[in-house]
Amino acid sequence: MNSITGTAAATQPSARTGAVPPLVRRIVNVVRLHAANPWTTIVTPWMIFAVVFGLNVAVWYAVVVAAGGRDKLDPGAFSSNGGGTWILIFLMVAAIQAMNLTFRFALGMGFTRRDYYIGTLLYFALLAAMFASGITLMAIIERATNGWGVDGRFFLPWEAAATSAPTLWLVILLAALVFISVGIAAATMWVRWGAVGLYMFFGAFAVVTVGTVWLVTWAKAWDDVGDYLTGHSPLTIVSWTVPITVVSAAFGYLMLRRATPKA
Q1: What is the mean pLDDT of residues 183-197?
Q2: I need a surface site. Which of 25, 144, 209, 233 has the fewest CB within 10 A?
Q3: What is the pLDDT of residue 4?
Q4: What pLDDT, in 10s, does the model give residues 19-57?
């Protein structure tokens, strides 16, 4: 009886380990690989946020004091602020750097390209959710304190001032995901063809952007574009980025399948 019990107890850890599918374990390990140095993608961005936010608040209070009180200024004097949008560019650049630094190492550790790509997408999606949650929390505090006491808007600029917290979280998440997917697609061009691939990617991106601007100008549709942007909610507008996110993610996977680690 004791031997049977001991055997059963000995097999329990392996049973628990086997309960996690191997694919899931490998993907989680890729996430852990990216998170090995949290300073780059987690700690430093929040430090930058704190500095940029602190400087904005200091300027607001300096202006209020110089004007002789908040009532001496226009109601929306501090409402137009894009200080928090830098995080979108950061996530795109971080995705490029992360893949460039870890791709060769990951394949050397035995990860497949599929495991690595899914794990990388998951890690940066989690980052996007984290930043969306943090910014939304600060937006709630900003709204509760009447814009930090001076009707300032750092986390709720422009039309976001009237947006509910769940909607704001989703808007930030979708915006972050499109920048991440574009960054990862660019990164796969880098790991496959080096700097030339990166130039090709952003060159093509610039051509598409300029071509779109030219097309709208040729059609004399800027008024229609402006009416659409001002007549629809931020969530409706940012939802148009979902196809770009999906296509960029699929493109990145196709490129990475044939990428070869460079010495």
Answers
A1: 90
A2: 144
A3: 39
A4: 778 889 999 999 999 999 888 899 999 999 999 999 999
261 lies in some domain: no
The whole-angstrom separation of Cα 65 and Cα 58 is 11
Domain of residue 178: give its range. 20-256
13 lies in a domain? no
Give the pLDDT of residue 228.
86
Backbone angles phi, psi at 77, to 5 degrees: -60, -35
Distance CA 180, CA 127 (A): 10
Q: Which residues of 172-188 are buried (b: 16+ CB within 10 A; e: fewer)?
A: bbbbbbbbbbbbbbbbb
In the predicted model, is pLDDT for residue 135 greater than 80? yes
Domain count, the chain: 1
Cβ-in-10-Å burial (0-12, 13-18, 19+) of 17 comes to exposed
